[in-house]
Amino acid sequence: MSAGAAATREATAPPELLALRSAAAVRERCERVYEWVAAGRSAHFTLDETKLDATAAFVAKVTRASYPDLVIPHHSRWGHFSAGGHDRWRTLALAGLSELDRARAAIDLTVVSVLLDAGAGSAWRYREAETGLTFARSEGLAVASFEMFRAGLFSSDPMRPYQVDSKALARLELTQLATAFQASDSNPLVGLPHRLDLLHRLANALTTQPGFGTAGRPGHLFTRILMESRTIAAPAILASLLDALSGIWPSGLEVDRVALGDAWRHPAIRTRDRSDGIVPFHKLSQWLTYSLIEPIERADLTVTDLDGLTGLPEYRNGGLLLDMGVIVPRAPLDPAAPHEVGSELIVEWRALTVALLDRLREATRAHLGLATLSMSQLLQGGTWSAGRTIAVERRPPDGPPPLSIKADGTVF
To answer: Distance between CA 19 and CA 242 in Å, rounded?
Structure first.
């Protein structure tokens, strides 16, 4: 379904379906799955919440190692742009741009980079020509996408290379994307055709949905909103993204011809309307929302209610909870046997991850001795790094997650 077709159906879409496009719905429905498992109704998992304190202590240890002064930044794509200790954003020739244009450029980069950020697989590597450094996984995808942005691959205007626009995205070809990612048979990148499809879908949304300006740039959506109010709540950023980009996701549910994106079914959810059985996650959209906070604040604007967002249900955060024994499989998990993204087991694991991260945040705050710890700081400090650390300890050398997922590059 095209983004334009999706937009024409919004007025008649059941309100209970549109309500699923929110962080509040993610949290509420994941909590109901948690209660289902805690009541012993799951065929896949049990819980051992006595392990939560040890998990919090481990997360606190990892956080202190990364941030000894406990000044923890936002969980954001922007940390990856500085991989290897190089602040790549500062290398761009932005001095001649206004503050608003710099914000638009930063938002453009963030959107396209996050959409390209789903799991890369364990075999792929990216070598940065300028530094000679080699990166893998999220850092590699970030550096690669930054280099594409710097080279003007996402811009249709040679005089304005530092932008992302619909024309350039629409004409992007698989060979171009593969070359830019240095992907090949000997250096395979998971889901490359699906990533290209996602960029083409984004191009369509930028053309057909309101708010992106005549050039069809992601940066116009939020700079327009922020020029009006100067303040925006994080859940409102997510809601704007989900409304504007609802038709771009090739994976996930579509109900009554309404695209719900990263939402799946689980028997713990029982309602008497069209939202029956549906658990939304919106992982990439929430990751994008977290990542937009920094460029928005850089423009001297204010983002409120960061904790209105949820923890991210992906394989590092969820893998941490499995590896630490908080989430306990009823049967041994075979990493060589991948599960479908929409399978009951994976949906349940992801929902438990969201619910347990809420509980882990308070315990980690106490171990760090902080008065407050935002969800963004927990993820950054934090659970994502701790998940990677324990995975490498338990499954060297590359530290794959404790379970395997059939990924197409658009969910994880």
So the answer is: 11
Q: Tens digit of pLDDT for each residue in 192-235? A: 998 999 999 999 999 988 778 888 999 988 776 666 778 899 99
Residue 134: both structure tokens together? 């080699």
Phi, psi of 263 (to 5 degrees): -140, 145
Using CA atoms, how far apart are residues 280 and 24, in angstroms rounded to an integer? 10
CA distances from 97 to 91, 102, 222 (A): 14, 6, 18
**pLDDT tier at 3, thresholds 50, 70, 90:** very low
DSSP 365: H
Q: Do 57 and 381 meet the contact criterion of CB atoms below 8 Å apart?
A: no
* Of 208, 174, 214, the residue nearest 192 (C-alpha): 174
Tokens of 370: 């902080």
Q: At what angle do helices 52-66 and 344-368 cross, to 10 degrees?
A: 70
**Residue for token digits 């705050």?**
365
| Confidence (pTM) | 0.91
Please count the other Cβ atoms lying within 10 Å of the Cβ belonging to residue 167: 16
Q: State how far the Cα of 260 lies from the Cα of 281, in Å rounded to an integer.
A: 10
Is the Cβ–Cβ distance between 130 and 408 less than 8 Å?
A: no
Closest C-alpha among 171, 149, 144 to residue 160: 149
Instruction: State the SS3 of 334-366.
Output: CCCCCEECCCHHHHHHHHHHHHHHHHHHHHHHH
CA dist list (Å): 67 to 73, 314, 377, 382, 391 = 9, 23, 11, 10, 21
Cα separation of 282 and 294, whole Å?
20
The token duo for 260 is: 């719900």
Q: What angle do CA 146, 149, 153 make, to 5 degrees?
A: 135
Name the phi and psi angles at 236, rounded to 5. Answer: -70, -35
Name 173's Cβ contacts closer than 8 Å, sequence gap at least 6.
196
* DSSP-derived 3-state class of residue 260: strand
